[in-house]
Amino acid sequence: MTNTSGYQRGPVTLRGRYVPQTTTDQRLLDDRGQAAWLHTDPWRIMRIQAEFVEGFGTLAEVGPAVSVFGSARTGPDDPNYALGEQVGAALVKAGYAVITGGGPGSMEAANKGAAEAGGTSVGLGIELPFEQGLNEYVHIGVNFRYFFIRKTMFVKYAQGFIVLPGGFGTFDELFEAMTLVQTRKVTRFPIVLIGSDYWAGLIDWLRTTVLDRGTISPHDLDLLHVTDDVDHAVQLIKDAGSELADQAAAQERAEEVAAQEYAEDVIEADRLGEGEGDLEGERSGERSDDRGTIRR
Ligand SMILES: C/C(=C\CNc1ncnc2c1ncn2[C@@H]1O[C@H](COP(=O)(O)O)[C@@H](O)[C@H]1O)CO
């Protein structure tokens, strides 16, 4: 006989001393408890999920975009500010939305350039102790609590990265992008550094010390492009986009041909009275002898 007694907590049955003194609803609705749970990891997981949902939901329909990084400290009179504006405008002219960290300095410059060129200007802000809020040129802004979620957005919704002169924050974004491409965690995308003078020391160190000591491979250096010419930077991103589109089209064609060949094989096997299982074996190089033993 089935014993139906016990306390049902969703799909879980609890009996004896395991039966709780309160119901789940009671605990949910009872606000007299401590608020310590707000600072626990399970609650953080909910916030993390919510932040991903908000980011994906906001950015999924932005269209082709390029993420632009650079110093938060670049003042409006700094030549790099004008460079940032040019980058924003040139990207818009080439059909891209511009995504930045939404802060001051070079981020603001790129957002300004994009907005004034009539394009889409996106700012992905981050909660910081000295937060300044999103710059005034951001059309679509999302403020993130978590760095790693914001970084996912910079990569997921961009066709390439343009990096203006910057400090630790900029280096972090640059090296994260390089690592993702180097480890093939993402499909290769272009990373363009603007300002050959500023980046020369880093490039030189990578080419000599880092390469010489064998901690990177020679081809890893190909991940970076350096230029002073904004139009050239944008062209590099466009070219990489066309190359990727060609590769994707070739892959699609190859899959179509393979599917067509497979369908023809199935029809032929059917005509000859063989099963689809035999065909699978043949495709993977397997052959069975009279006793059914699989040979390769
Ligand atoms: C330091 C100041 C403001 C900081 N505000 C920022 N808002 C948004 N994003 C930021 C901010 N600071 C850094 N970032 C990100 O890092 C990159 C710039 O860092 P760097 O160290 O200045 O190079 C940038 O691309 C942002 O994504 C007020 O001076």
TrEMBL record:
Domain of life: Bacteria
Molecular functions per Gene Ontology: cytokinin riboside 5'-monophosphate phosphoribohydrolase activity
Pfam family of the protein (one): Lysine_decarbox
Keyword Zinc attached: no
Biased composition (Basic and acidic residues): 268-296
Reaction catalysed by this enzyme: 9-ribosyl-trans-zeatin 5'-phosphate + H2O = trans-zeatin + D-ribose 5-phosphate; N(6)-(dimethylallyl)adenosine 5'-phosphate + H2O = N(6)-dimethylallyladenine + D-ribose 5-phosphate
Residue ranges, annotated region (Disordered): 265-296
Biological processes, Gene Ontology terms: cytokinin biosynthetic process
Entries under InterPro entries matching the protein: LOG (IPR005269), LOG_fam (IPR031100), LOG_family_nucleotidases (IPR052341)
Keywords: Cytokinin biosynthesis, Hydrolase
Family: Belongs to the LOG family.
Protein name: Cytokinin riboside 5'-monophosphate phosphoribohydrolase
Lineage of the species this protein comes from: Bacteria, Bacillati, Actinomycetota, Actinomycetes, Micrococcales
